[in-house]
């Protein structure tokens, strides 16, 4: 089975213009970004995204590069909807290091 790049910046599928998963989550955290373990939050976020997009034929990496099987018939709208269903705020809360 051969794989090919699906996109080089998966975060932009979730939020057009977003540079990375890190910026997507740090934008969501706003002024409280230092209250979270952002590296772990990004890793957890990507894991959660992969849980919902893998069945659709796509996987992504923390860097945002994502892959699919070469020649696969990928439903882009379904991939975007599935990825967008992952709650970044919930991921952030699970990685709260503020002690609050």
- By secondary-structure content and strand pairing, the structural class works out as alpha+beta
Taking strands numbered 1, 2, ... along the chain, how are they ordered across the largest sheet? Answer: 1-3-2
Write down the oligomeric state: single chain
* Largest sheet descriptor: 3 strands, antiparallel
Low-pLDDT windows of residues: none
Alpha-carbon distance between the two ends: 48 Å
Strand tally, please? 3
Number of domains: 1
Helical element count? 5
Round the mean pLDDT to the nearest integer and report it: 96
- Topology order in helix (H) and strand (E) letters: EHHHEEHH
Q: Proportion of β residues?
A: 5-15%
General shape: elongated
Computed CA radius of gyration, to the nearest angstrom? 14 Å
Report the helical percentage.
Answer: 40-55%
Describe this structure in words.
With 100 residues, the protein is of the alpha+beta class. The chain has one domain. Helix content is 45%, strand content 12%. It has helices at residues 11-14, 21-29, 38-53, 76-84, 88-94; strands at 3-7, 58-60, 66-69. A three-stranded antiparallel beta sheet has the order 1-3-2. Helix 2 (21-29) crosses helix 3 (38-53), helix 3 (38-53) packs across helix 4 and helix 3 (38-53) crosses helix 5 (88-94). It is elongated and about 50 Å long. The mean pLDDT is 96.
């Amino acid at each position: 089975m051969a794989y090919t790049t699906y996109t080089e910046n998966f975060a932009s599928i979730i939020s057009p213009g977003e540079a990375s998963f890190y910026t997507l989550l740090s934008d969501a955290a706003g002024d409280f970004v230092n209250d979270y373990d952002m590296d772990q939050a990004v890793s957890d976020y990507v894991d959660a995204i992969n849980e919902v997009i893998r069945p659709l034929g796509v996987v992504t990496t923390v860097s945002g590069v994502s892959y699919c099987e070469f020649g696969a018939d990928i439903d882009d709208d379904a991939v975007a909807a599935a990825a967008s269903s992952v709650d970044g705020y919930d991921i952030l809360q699970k990685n709260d290091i503020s002690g609050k």
